[in-house]
């Protein structure tokens, strides 16, 4: 099933639970603006998108992905998820996303810079601190945000650091951004495990994906007494019932290696990792990893989605039947965009805010978001899983804004 079809199916479920009208569902089912361009770099064409899904709550906000599989369906889905994620977090943002279809792993730095600048040349008229604000996503980073900011400011003729977040610190970025997604996910795991599993000590955890999100959350959990028994990256996984040495794994990845280079651990496949009996499985790689093909074999007691969209619609139903609790992406990985919001506020006001204060604020926001979603889940009394509970809160907020705007 294409990714956006999953969203349409979930909207149908929410329509039934919340008694929404056809008009409301139509508004939530289609993006407000889809822009496509072919970036021309050194005579080669690169398909590129910027999609604004909804901006009733504020300017669009969402990252830019560089990946060979980027397509309109994916960017549209990611822009929808940003709209619900930003709404759930209570941020003054709509949802947007961008992408360029190419393989950054086989592209040299000079070409990466040209592609980044060409992206802005094509899309700068629909970007800006009060219009639509990009950030990093898969295979984009602070340096790319720096090139994009520079190109944008050349185009518009003034400084506007709030037009993009996840920038280098020297260009107005936040020191907290690097591990913010993992930190937010870690806070949610602490709250969730206490509420659902009755403890947050000594629990067994598996982690799919060992990049920015997966590696950082592994380090935080291991330091806090969780036992990480399995991790994987795109080349395969490793397993140790007694707990993996996370510091060694981080060292392997930092020098550019793969997790299977870790000695003293059993090699497993990615498929095997997804079916291990653990207390918590963290999904921190890509979309559509748990589908009907493997959902029935999942043995984790809880799943936390740090990646966007790692579980498809049909698999959600299987996991719900199996009473496996899924903490949805729009809650679990919202730490990144919350810190982006702090960065944007500082860029706009010129104020320098104490980072310890912002760290505390992130923790508070994550805890209250978890509590709000869990309360809604309980209120729905078996009608909705945590994902639908989170969507209900977020979509009702967007619909309320649309109503005040007179759109419905
Ligand atoms: P990343 O590129 O740093 O890491 C991705 C990791 O997944 C790598 O270790 C890669 O080897 C691994 N991987 C790829 N395919 C795999 C497979 N089939 N099985 C196992 N591992 C596989 O990316 P990231 O920034 O860590 O993002 C990961 C996910 O989290 C994405 O879905 C992204 O959209 C989401 N996310 C990230 C952030 C953030 O701030 N980094 C914020 C929100 C959401």
TrEMBL record:
<feature type="site" description="Important for catalysis">
    <location>
        <position position="137"/>
    </location>
</feature>
<keyword id="KW-0520">NAD</keyword>
<dbReference type="InterPro" id="IPR006096">
    <property type="entry name" value="Glu/Leu/Phe/Val/Trp_DH_C"/>
</dbReference>
<dbReference type="InterPro" id="IPR046346">
    <property type="entry name" value="Aminoacid_DH-like_N_sf"/>
</dbReference>
<dbReference type="InterPro" id="IPR033922">
    <property type="entry name" value="NAD_bind_Glu_DH"/>
</dbReference>
<dbReference type="InterPro" id="IPR006095">
    <property type="entry name" value="Glu/Leu/Phe/Val/Trp_DH"/>
</dbReference>
<keyword id="KW-0560">Oxidoreductase</keyword>
<feature type="active site" description="Proton donor">
    <location>
        <position position="97"/>
    </location>
</feature>
<feature type="binding site">
    <location>
        <position position="212"/>
    </location>
    <ligand>
        <name>NAD(+)</name>
    </ligand>
</feature>
<feature type="binding site">
    <location>
        <position position="181"/>
    </location>
    <ligand>
        <name>NAD(+)</name>
    </ligand>
</feature>
<keyword id="KW-0547">Nucleotide-binding</keyword>
<feature type="domain" description="Glutamate/phenylalanine/leucine/valine/L-tryptophan dehydrogenase C-terminal">
    <location>
        <begin position="174"/>
        <end position="406"/>
    </location>
</feature>
<dbReference type="InterPro" id="IPR006097">
    <property type="entry name" value="Glu/Leu/Phe/Val/Trp_DH_dimer"/>
</dbReference>
<dbReference type="InterPro" id="IPR033524">
    <property type="entry name" value="Glu/Leu/Phe/Val_DH_AS"/>
</dbReference>
<feature type="binding site">
    <location>
        <position position="340"/>
    </location>
    <ligand>
        <name>substrate</name>
    </ligand>
</feature>
<dbReference type="InterPro" id="IPR014362">
    <property type="entry name" value="Glu_DH"/>
</dbReference>
<dbReference type="Pfam" id="PF02812">
    <property type="entry name" value="ELFV_dehydrog_N"/>
</dbReference>
<comment type="similarity">
    <text>Belongs to the Glu/Leu/Phe/Val dehydrogenases family.</text>
</comment>
<protein>
    <recommendedName>
        <fullName>Glutamate dehydrogenase</fullName>
    </recommendedName>
</protein>
<dbReference type="Pfam" id="PF00208">
    <property type="entry name" value="ELFV_dehydrog"/>
</dbReference>
<dbReference type="GO" id="GO:0006538">
    <property type="term" value="P:L-glutamate catabolic process"/>
</dbReference>
<dbReference type="InterPro" id="IPR036291">
    <property type="entry name" value="NAD(P)-bd_dom_sf"/>
</dbReference>
<dbReference type="GO" id="GO:0004352">
    <property type="term" value="F:glutamate dehydrogenase (NAD+) activity"/>
</dbReference>
<feature type="binding site">
    <location>
        <position position="61"/>
    </location>
    <ligand>
        <name>substrate</name>
    </ligand>
</feature>
<dbReference type="GO" id="GO:0000166">
    <property type="term" value="F:nucleotide binding"/>
</dbReference>
<feature type="binding site">
    <location>
        <position position="85"/>
    </location>
    <ligand>
        <name>substrate</name>
    </ligand>
</feature>
């Amino acid at each position: 099933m294409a990714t956006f079809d999953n969203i349409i199916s979930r909207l149908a479920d929410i329509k039934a639970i919340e008694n929404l009208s056809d008009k409301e569902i139509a508004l939530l089912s289609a993006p407000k603006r889809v822009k496509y361009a072919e970036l021309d770099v050194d005579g080669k064409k690169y398909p590129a998108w910027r999609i604004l899904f909804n901006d009733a709550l504020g300017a669009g906000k969402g990252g830019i992905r560089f990946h060979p599989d980027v397509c309109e369906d994916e960017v549209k889905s990611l822009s929808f998820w940003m709209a619900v994620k930003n709404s759930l977090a209570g941020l003054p943002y709509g949802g947007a996303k961008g992408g360029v279809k190419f393989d950054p792993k086989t592209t040299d730095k000079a070409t990466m810079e040209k592609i980044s600048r060409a992206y802005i040349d094509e899309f700068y008229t629909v970007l800006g601190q009060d219009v639509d604000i990009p950030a990093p996503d898969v295979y984009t980073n602070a340096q790319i945000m720096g090139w994009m900011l520079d190109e944008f400011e050349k185009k518009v003729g003034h400084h506007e650091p709030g037009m993009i977040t996840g920038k280098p610190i020297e260009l107005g970025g936040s020191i907290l951004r690097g591990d913010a997604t993992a930190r937010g996910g870690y806070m949610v795991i602490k709250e969730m495990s206490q509420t659902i599993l009755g403890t947050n000590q000594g629990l067994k955890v598996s982690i799919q994906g060992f990049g920015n999100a997966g590696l950082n959350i592994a380090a935080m959990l291991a330091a806090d007494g969780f036992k990480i028994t399995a991790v994987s990256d795109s080349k395969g996984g490793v397993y140790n019932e007694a707990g993996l040495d996370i510091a060694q794994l981080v060292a392997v990845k930092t020098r550019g290696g793969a997790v299977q280079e870790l000695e003293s651990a059993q090699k497993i496949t990615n498929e095997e990792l997804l079916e291990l009996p653990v207390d918590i499985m963290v999904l921190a790689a890509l979309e559509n990893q748990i589908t009907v093909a493997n959902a029935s074999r999942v043995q984790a007691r809880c799943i936390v989605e740090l990646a966007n969209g790692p579980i498809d619609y049909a698999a959600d139903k299987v996991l719900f039947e199996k009473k496996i609790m899924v903490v949805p992406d729009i809650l679990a990985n919202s730490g990144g965009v919350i810190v982006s919001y702090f960065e944007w506020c500082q860029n706009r006001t010129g104020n320098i805010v104490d980072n310890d204060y912002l760290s505390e604020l992130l923790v508070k926001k994550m805890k209250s978001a978890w509590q709000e979603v869990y309360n809604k889940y309980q209120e729905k009394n078996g009608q909705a899983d945590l994902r639908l509970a989170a969507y209900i809160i977020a979509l009702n907020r967007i619909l309320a804004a649309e109503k005040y705007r007179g759109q419905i």
